[in-house]
Design a protein that fits this description.
Radius of gyration of chain A: 26 Å
Helix content of chain A: 55-70%
Largest sheet of chain B: none
Structural class of chain A: alpha/beta
Order of helices and strands of chain B: HHHH
Shape of chain A: elongated
Number of helices of chain A: 17
Largest sheet of chain A: 6 strands, parallel
Shape of chain B: flat
Number of domains of chain B: 2
Radius of gyration of chain B: 23 Å
Number of strands of chain A: 6
Oligomer: heterodimer
Structural class of chain B: mainly alpha
Order of helices and strands of chain A: HHHHHHHHHHHHEHHEHEHEEEH
């Protein structure tokens, strides 16, 4: 029976891999996701069949746990706004980490029962952990607990709750974090040695919970995409560690797939902001570094040209190629649909319209693409930064909507907080229209010389209202 | 006379040794699976276009809910109040991850492939 179960686990693993492979193209992605779900259903069914005589209580608990969790998960999944997707994914990450350290904790508990009284608990002989299993248990405890509280913290930050502190809680917090981690590792060693006692495990979990909060609280809102991707990776690693605890290959395989995925996305996000992971994690808030450099008055003084929807509508009369650069401001103003209407109108007049998407345009990897897909923008029109940059000089009008730092030409300079960050080269377009509420700086806290350039004009106002007005002017004109 | 150079296969020490060898082999096998899966993951995931990075995250999130298998296994063995409560919690949390993760990914991917 166990051989059959392992064979089925292998099939489920293959389904996970084919599932993720399906995600390499939007057309095959829906099927890929369903394959993954099928793999999960198979793994669960086989596990239940493996010990079908476990008794009524066990099945009552398994089924009720599934129903409760399933209902909550289903509700969250269908109610969430697309703008709130980062929060939801953060929360799911946390739950995954939590489940992992709980399972590892129960495994340790059963192991302790057997060790202390092998006669009474003779049926738990398979639950006995050796040293590698114990190490994995504590690894799962640390990673899982950090994932849980770190994710809840990230959730609160993304929700912008007022009580959440921003930045370091106290001086030398990084050192304190290292001390906490060392303490957790030390206690883990102790726990592995006295493997029959449970308290070291729960103390380690508690300490790691504190560590998770302390790590994420110091990280600024702009860096949340990196944090979510990293926690995604942790939730996978916690599952893999739990797989080592209960000696189960499918947990190891699925966990390491997710671990790899999270690490890759973390790397992509860091690269898109030209920052190292350690700088994101331990550097504190970005704005603290913004000190020297030209003031807003130096950059903007008398050079910023303001324009109106009527004037912009006239500019579109001669435009052949238009590129829209959306930032998170589009989502805040709920302007996706208005932008889509504008795109439709322009296209009906024979204008080519594309969207240039910076990797950190949204609040998590690929977030902006989802927001635009929700507004029915076809995915073929969403062009990656590296693909569109070489052609920017042939663009007649570039519309920057609710974006700032990702189009700041100062990023090409060697100094300043944005130095070296890859940007969309909107300043190379023949004409740049910036739709923005004011000249206020972005997350980096520095002025944007783009706004004062000769080929740039500012269309001040709320993103959605401004775009709707512009569309109306175009219709009338 | 007892011959020391020929070990008795039934001796406790020998049993323990061979049991240890089996254990180490199975640990090495698990580590092999772990590292190979990371490489496979890296190979496929680098091919996922940025457009689908959010669904990739929520979908892989659902897959990390595989801990649900561990929760089921634990509940099948659990006795006593603490183990049962923790097991139920683990089961519920992991299921939120699995069901919610696949459902929300499906919802997003449908938007990409409307036509």
């Amino acid at each position: 029976m166990e051989q059959f179960a392992n064979l089925m686990y292998l099939v489920a693993s293959a389904l996970f891999i084919f599932g993720i492979k399906g995600l390499t193209h939007p057309r095959t992605a829906v099927r890929g996701n369903l394959l993954g779900a099928l793999g999960m259903a198979l793994a669960m069914a086989v596990t239940i069949l493996l010990k079908w005589d476990a008794g009524f209580t066990a099945y009552a608990l398994i089924i009720s746990g599934f129903v409760v969790g399933g209902l909550i998960g289903w509700q969250l999944a269908w109610k969430v706004e697309m703008t709130a997707m980062p929060e939801l994914v953060a929360l799911y990450n946390g739950f995954g980490g939590g489940a992992s350290f709980l399972v590892a904790g129960i495994a340790l508990l059963l192991h302790g029962d057997y060790i202390t009284d092998p006669v009474t608990y003779h049926h738990l002989v398979n639950m006995k952990l050796e040293m590698d299993g114990l190490i994995a248990t504590y690894a799962s405890g640390i990673i899982g607990a950090v994932t849980l509280t770190g994710s809840v913290m990230a959730f609160c930050k993304l929700r912008e709750y007022k009580w959440v502190p921003n930045g370091f809680l106290f001086q030398g917090q990084n050192l304190a974090n290292i001390a906490i981690l060392l303490l957790a590792i030390l206690l883990s060693g102790l726990g592995c040695y006295y493997s029959a006692s449970l308290w070291p495990y729960w103390v380690v979990v508690l300490i790691s919970c504190v560590l998770g909060v302390m790590l994420v609280v110091a990280i600024g809102g702009a860096d949340m995409p990196v944090v979510i991707a990293l926690l995604n990776s942790y939730s996978g690693l916690a599952a893999a560690a739990t797989g080592f605890v209960i000696d189960n290959n499918i947990l190891i395989i699925a966990g390491s797939l997710v671990g790899a995925s999270g690490v890759i996305l973390t790397g992509i996000m860091c690269k898109a902001m030209n920052r190292s992971l350690s700088n994101v994690l331990f550097g504190g808030l970005l704005s603290e570094q913004a000190s020297a450099g030209p003031s807003a008055d130096d950059v903007y003084g008398g050079k910023v040209k303001s324009t109106t929807p009527e004037e912009v509508a006239m500019l579109f009369d001669t435009a052949q190629r238009v590129v829209i650069v959306p930032g998170y401001g589009v989502a805040v103003a709920q302007a996706q649909h208005a932008v889509r209407d504008l795109e439709n109108l322009l296209e009906s007049r024979g204008v080519t319209v594309e969207y240039a998407i910076h990797p950190v345009a949204g609040r998590m990897p690929g977030h902006m693409n989802v927001l635009l897909a929700e507004a029915d923008v076809p995915y073929e029109k969403l062009i990656e930064m590296d693909a569109i940059n070489p052609t920017m000089s042939t663009v007649d009008i570039c519309m920057v909507i609710g974006a700032n730092d990702v189009v700041n030409p100062d990023a090409r300079k060697s100094v300043g907080p944005l130095a070296g960050m890859p940007i969309i080269n909107v300043d190379e377009a023949r004409m740049v229209i910036v739709v923005k509420r004011s000249l206020s700086p972005g997350f980096a806290g520095v002025p944007n010389p783009l706004f004062a350039m000769d080929n740039a004009q500012m269309m001040f106002g709320d993103g959605k209202k401004a775009i709707i007005e512009l569309t109306n002017c175009l219709k009338e004109g | 006379m007892h011959n020391d150079s020929e070990p008795d296969p039934d001796s406790d020490w020998e049993k323990k040794k061979s049991k240890n060898e089996v254990r180490v082999m199975s640990l090495i096998a698990s580590l092999t699976v772990f590292f190979l899966a990371i490489f496979v993951g890296k190979e496929i995931i680098t091919k996922v276009p940025p457009t689908l990075h959010t669904p990739l995250m929520s979908g892989s999130n659902a897959i990390s809910g595989i801990t649900v298998v561990g929760a089921i296994l634990m509940l099948q063995h659990a006795e006593g109040f603490v183990a049962i409560v923790l097991g139920f919690l683990a089961m519920a949390l992991a299921t939120i991850n699995v069901v919610g993760g696949f459902a929300v990914t499906h919802r997003m991917l449908k938007m990409f492939d409307k036509r």
